[in-house]
Amino acid sequence: xxxxxxxxxxxxxxxxxxxxxxxxxxxxxxxxxxxxxxxxxxxxxxxxxxxxxxxxxxxxxxxxxxxxxxxxxxxxxxxxxxxxxxxxxxxxxxxxxxxxxxxxxxxxxxxxxxxxxxxxxxxxxxxxxxxxxxxxxxxxxxxxx
Length: 145
Prior knowledge:
The protein contains five helices and four strands. It is of the alpha+beta class and about 140 residues long. Helix 2 packs across helix 4 (about 110-130). About 15% of the residues are buried.
């Protein structure tokens, strides 16, 4: 049996034939300073394989994304789907609080391995922020109150 996936024309035009597997991960953080610190901490490590490409950017939350994040926080639930940020030219730096990571890989396996490594590194970065950063501690106190 031969299975084939057909993408809508707009999506199919965007797929890089050399790197057909892709994923975008958007992680909202409390402040621009924390988001830019996470970006700088993560981007120093290059991808180990030439079969994977990764890029980082900081974007702002859209109104719908902000509502979803707030609803999840209010319900103390994990966010089901990472919010998509916008890269508006009119957005001030302070509004760019979402770390957006774009992955492209030659195979789903290579994508999975790279993304697993990213989440391990992101866990370390967030753990350090939680333990050592004053802004994160203040944000936690607001949530606990």
